[in-house]
Amino acid sequence: MLDVTTSAARSSAEWELAMPLEEAHQRVLRAVAGMPRVRVRSVAEDRIELSVLGNFSSWGEVISIELTPAAGGTGLRVRTRPIVPFTLLDWGEGARDIRALHAAVAHDDGGGGGAAGLAGGSTGEPSPQLGRLAPWPEPFAWFAVVTASVLLLLALVNLVLNSSHIGSSLPLLVLMPFSLVFGIGSLRASRRTDVSEHDGRRRRPGRDR
């Protein structure tokens, strides 16, 4: 796994691409093209700056990518900083986005050196998206789904029995669906990960004998 350093909501990492600087430059831009939460702020010959829209973890962040010629090709130094300067905690958002960028660049093979261009190669998995919330751990996801379901049911009952005070039910009716939807999404993501790991073990050489 890529080594990412984080301090006070600011993260950084370095790695190399086995290709010339110009080709690496274009590969990075292709990797983030079409990501709905990413905007290209500025582009220079040896530097790319991106902005990532905010979510429940942060108000958003800026990603600076410096490209320098190296003996094996091109060195990348990626740093993230929060949009709000005094932010001290981003709940791991910056580190997740750096790793997602690393994986997305490895995944890209659109005329830019192929999967072998990045040390470690392509994982063969769908390219990750920057700025997307990481799934909750499975136990917490189950807790969120059960709790949100119960509170939504209580809110609906209260809405029927206490129709003269509708406002008392609105906070739960507005907030709990978010927990329910994201909890279900996290459980699905966990299930996909388990299935993928199971399939990977079955495909290992020698295990089918």
Reported for the largest beta sheet, the result is:
6 strands, antiparallel
What is the count of β-strands?
Answer: 6
Uncertain spans, ≥5 residues at pLDDT below 50?
111-124
Q: How many separate domains make up the residues?
A: 2
Question: What is the CATH class designation of the largest domain?
Answer: Alpha Beta
| DSSP helical segment count | 4
The CATH superfamily of the largest domain is identified as: START domain
Could you explain how this protein is built, in words?
There is one protein chain. This protein has 209 residues and is an alpha+beta fold. It folds into 2 domains: 5-117, 2-Layer Sandwich (Alpha-D-Glucose-1,6-Bisphosphate, Chain A, domain 4); 138-203. Helix content is 41%, strand content 22%. The protein contains 4 helices and 6 strands; from the N terminus they run E-E-H-E-E-E-E-H-H-H. It has helices spanning 21-32, 93-107, 138-161, 170-203; strands spanning 5-7, 10-17, 38-44, 47-53, 60-70, 73-82. Strands 1-2-6-5-4-3 form a 6-stranded antiparallel sheet, covered by helices on one side. Helix 1 (21-32) packs across helix 2 and helix 3 (138-161) runs antiparallel to helix 4. The longest helix is centred in the C-terminal third of the chain and has 34 residues, at 170-203. The radius of gyration is 21 Å and the shape is elongated. The two termini are 31 Å apart. Mean pLDDT is 80; it is low at 111-124.
